[in-house]
Amino acid sequence: MAWIWMLSAAGAVLLWVISLGRILSSPAPSCLPPLRGDRRNRNVLLVVAHPDDESMFFAPTIMFLNSRGHRIHILCMSQGNADGLGNFRKEELYNACDTLKIPRNQVKALDHPKLQDGFHEKWDHGLLAELAMEHVQLWDIDLIVTFDSYGVSGHPNHRDVHHGIWYRRLFVMFSSYTYINTLQKV
């Protein structure tokens, strides 16, 4: 009976050693190709909900993409005026982008009446998609980066941005760049 326990423990240790070896032998992120083997510099659009989202949630991504020569554009869907500090927060966004080496002409903070900062504010996904699409065309964007479906922190505005970006119009527009497996009824 003891030999079964020893064999199980040895198997677990062996599995751990193999996993560790694979992790240590895999290329570091700095060695990875920029976008799936394509080494062209891209126009990347980061879509955020409020000023400070770019720094709080996306600074490492921005720094990595900048280090690879990609042109980062930021579209901030609101000025973050929940506490009446919208103009101040907008200026903070521009200052943060200066620090992150993103030219100010590649940064836009919107002040749309239907996209106001707040936990109880529901943002229209179609409107978000429309505004993002305008900037995709304006800046000739190749790649969009935004929040995950949880909005990173769970903030409703972050989640709405995610769903707005995945809204059908943008999905159709970018479907030519990405192969998506879909199940179809026959």
UniProtKB/TrEMBL annotation:
InterPro entries reported for this sequence: GlcNAc_PI_deacetylase-related, LmbE-like_dom_sf
GO cellular component entries: endoplasmic reticulum
Enzyme class name: hydrolase
UniProt-listed Enzyme Commission number(s): 3.5.1.89
Signal peptide as annotated in the record: 1-21
Entry keyword set: Signal
Molecular functions per Gene Ontology: N-acetylglucosaminylphosphatidylinositol deacetylase activity
Family stated for the protein in its record: Belongs to the PIGL family.
PANTHER family: N-ACETYLGLUCOSAMINYL-PHOSPHATIDYLINOSITOL DE-N-ACETYLASE, N-ACETYLGLUCOSAMINYL-PHOSPHATIDYLINOSITOL DE-N-ACETYLASE-RELATED
Name assigned to this protein: N-acetylglucosaminylphosphatidylinositol deacetylase
Source species of the chain: Eleusine coracana subsp. coracana
